[in-house]
Structures are given as structure tokens and as C-alpha cells.
Amino acid sequence: MLRMYLEQNPRYHQASRLARNNSRGGLWLIGGTVFRTLAHLMYGTPLGHSPTGEATPKKVDFDFIVGSTPEALHIDSDWAIKTNSYGNRKFTFGEESIDVIPIATTSSVIRRKVVPTIENFLDGAPFTIQKIALNCLDWRLVDRGGIEALLNQEVKVNDLDEALTVSAKKCRPIPEIMVQLAHDLKFKCIGGDA
Question: What is the pTM for the complete model shown?
């Protein structure tokens, strides 16, 4: 069902093309595009929100984990190259944003000193809802607990150290981030004390 939804989304096609053109090795879609879309398809939850909870369908954010990125980038002339808060490349155009993140540079892989695989990356996700990725090359879901979080309709901390990293980057306490995620998804917030 996720595949059918994404195949009908021209913004996904453009984002995945840009990510493919600027990656080597594997290519996985992660983050809100995966878990929010699955929650929408499973429960009818809204797809996008502003910090105040208003729907924001125009804003598009795709996050891709890749094996590596080439030195020379291949992007359309109307896109800008920026750096995200973790120091990785981000392509932007208007309200659209595409992060292309080499797996070996992710904070949880570096901090835990683990082999840079998609499974190890997902095992270090800050919240359980984020423990799922879509392999963009074969359309298979890689699940390390994200499906269970979706089925239980809950948001809880998976890796406290990584959640603290996210909290520091966003300048927001973990419980606030969790409550917002749970509110957006219409899920339960479990724990969150740090």
C-alpha cells in the first residue's frame, strides 16, 4: 500500500530521482514520509502539520539514507544545495527539502560504533515509530520495530542517547517532541521522561 501511494506522488518521484543520482550503494527512505504515510494509510491520520497542528500539505520533506554520496552532485538548476543540522547535504526548492544522508555519517552509527547497515541505523532510531525504512531499490520495508509501534499506535523512546541528540538539535525537550509526534499521529505517547 505504501508503494502504491508513493508511485502516485510526483514529488516522491522527483525526490527519489535526485537521491538516486546523488548516491552510491543502498537507498532507503526513512522518517516521517514512511511512518506518517503508513499511519495515514492505516488509520486515516493527517499527513502534515505545522508546529501549531495546522495541516501543511505544501511542505514536503524526504529523508534518504544512502551508502555514500559522490563528490560531484547532480541536481536540477532550480534546486539549492544546503547543509542539514547534522552536516549532511540537503537539496531544497521552495517548500521541498530532500536530505541525502550517508549511513556511515549518522550520529547513532558513529556514537554506537556499529557497522553502518540500515538495520543498525534503525536500531539506533530515537523513537520506536522511526524504526522502519523503505528500500527504494526493491520496495521492501526494513522493519526493526516501527510496524509494532504503528500497530500499537504509540510513540516512545527507543534510544535515549539518540533522543537526547535530537532534543538538543531541535532545542526542544524529549517529552515535547514525543507529545507533538503522538498528537500529529493521533497515537499514545508512552514515557518520555529524560
Answer: 0.91
